[in-house]
Amino acid sequence: MPKILIIEDEAAIRRVLKKIISEENDAYNVEEAEDGLQGIEMIMKTDYDLVFCDIKMPEMTGIEVLNA
Fold first, then answer.
1. Which of 13, 36, 37, 49 is most enclosed, with most CB atoms within 10 A?
2. Using CA atoms, how far apart are residues 27 and 36, in angstroms rounded to an integer?
3. What is the pTM of this model?
4. What percentage of the chain carries pLDDT values higher than 90?
């Protein structure tokens, strides 16, 4: 089962992205992180097949997440 992580600080955007991805294929395991720090922690614990990451976020930007 493909694992997908959405890193996005806006709850409404996370919810819509998760809904769209899940409706595309119910075999996708979609998880969410509300900021870059939480996203990094999740990436360290789990191997994801795909990560969607917002660029402008508080605490840690998407660019900082990519460089970590």
1. 36
2. 25
3. 0.91
4. 90
Q: Is the pLDDT of residue 58 over 90?
A: no
Question: Which among 41, 65, 43 is positioned nearest to 55, based on CA atoms?
Answer: 65
Torsions phi, psi for 33 (to 5 deg) = -130, 135
19, two tokens: 């809904």
Q: What is the average per-residue pLDDT within 32-52?
A: 96
Strand 50-53 relative to strand 3-7, pairing:
parallel
Find the mean pLDDT for residues 12-17: 96
Q: What is the DSSP letter of 9?
A: S
**1: CB partners within 8 A, 6+ apart:** 27, 28, 29
